[in-house]
Amino acid sequence: MSDIDPRRLAPLFFTGTSPFLVANPEFAQAMVHAAHGCALHASENIHDANGLLLWASGKPIDDRLLERLMDRRLRKPIELCVHATDSQATGFVAGALAQEREDSAALRAIVPEDRWRQVESVVAHIVPNPTELMLFSVLRHGREDRMRHAALVCALTLAFAHELDVHPDLLGPLARAALLHDIGRLYLPGGLAGPSVREEREHPLIGARAAVELARCPSPVSRIVSTSHERLDGWGYPRGLPAPELSTAEQSLLFAEAIASPLEAGRNGLRRAAIAARLVPGEFPPELVTLVSRAAQSIPIEGGFEAVTRPISLELRQVHSVLATLGPLLSEQGPETEGTRELARRWGAKVESLRKVLYSTGVGEELAAGRRVEASTLVEAIELGVLADELRSRIRELRQRIEIARDEDPSVGTSGLVLQLLDALRASEPDPRQFTADAGEPPGLLRWSRIFRVGVGVVDEQHRTIIDLINRLDTLAHASREGESAHVREDILLELLSYVGEHFATEERLMAEHDIPGRGDHINEHSLFRDQVGYLFARQREGKATLEELNLFLRSWLVSHILQTDKAMGEALNARGAR
Questions:
Q1: Are 110 and 156 in contact (CB under 8 A)?
Q2: CA-CA distance, 486 to 94, in Å (whole number)?
Q3: 543 CB contacts (<8 Å, ≥6 apart)?
Q4: Per-residue confidence (pLDDT) for residue 452, from 0 to 100
Q5: Which tens digits make up the pLDDT trace of 435-452?
Q6: Where do the domains of the chain lie, and which CATH numbers do they carry?
């Protein structure tokens, strides 16, 4: 990378509407943290809007700046008043690229040597202005090193741009956009709570605005940054743009960003990325999916099958149960507004596409028949794991869209259909902490809803009690972070298990009394559940598992069992007169 132009940029005119005239606390903290790892200084006097001097020109940045910036409106954005003076800074982007290539066999497989020289050439011709260099420094030295991710995405993007015949004049702006594509994350809330769904989905727009207003990048860079998390089928964010509205340059970056995470996740990352990329047709450019799939075949699989301990069958069962629950809800909309009906049609089309993915693998038929889906080889374990992860990710995307539609339109928010959809998604979320909680509620709280009803009075009453006990456990799990003793949770857990045993006995008696076909498979599920709980309880007592892990398993299994197996049992009992 060439040396920077040492001349200061001419000051920009910022109107009172610019969000950067109040220093973002998350970015300010990241900048101050970065100052511990590189040389950052005030390039000019920093004043508040009333002219009060907050920090003198030339003064190194340190922790005291945070106190001066707090809740103050500035005359000029802080990002334009701080520059990096690290003598090594001009080369660290190229260094990050070289390090990624050295460490990643996957990157070497995707980007061969001749193509890599082209990547290096494009990056070498980028001359970052002082603000860009400061942003790169914060990416590298902030609370976490984001520059390696940016370098990986940049290399992949330029390689994919070659495959899509992106015009050479766009390669420089594209590389710049790839390096800055996640800059918006520096402005998101940190801590335990983290960003909200809306904040997370808007970070590409924050980054795009920072690129054009602060880094003074040309408009193509800003546009490409803003589309870095879109998908060709229109199910990306923040704007849900479909393929015709996405240029080949933008498609190169969004695909690079999508596969970077599995590549960084650990062993067999390229194979996981290849499976994920081709799983849902229409999400990504087919020629890029083919390129990554071929590269994956060139790298041997690492590890042994005996190391795979994921409960994949349960995870896939959860996916199947939520899709099976959402489908009928969306096809039987009832008295809804035209706006809600249109949304439901879109949501229903997505659910149907995910259901087709599950059944196209052969997994759907096994789960529908009540059979466990188990991997017999490491390759199968990887494929099933990716299938579960990717489908759960798409279901979570659907839930986020429903939440946003509910928040933006009061008529959608009061829709009975939307309330039922969110109840189903709340119940089926593998990790309840991922679900947005209502004010004052623990994140995992379940609401009794018609989605749990099987149509047999005694069974429904017992299911309601089970959900109440699960909620008590979730509430205690939430309280335990504030000092609640573990033995209280264990007492509730034992009470839940005892009651579940009584509930199983009730179901088995009813099925026997009414001679329900297939009851042997249902009873076998109960037996497998008892065996698995016994195994997990023993591990917990040995200190090899936590109560929270056991609680999450209980919640996941019981909710999936109610939504799938018990629903089928209820229909059979109703057909024989049981109510």
A1: yes
A2: 50
A3: none
A4: 85
A5: 554 544 555 577 788 888
A6: 89-297 (1.10.3210.10), 303-430 (no CATH), 443-579 (1.20.120.50)
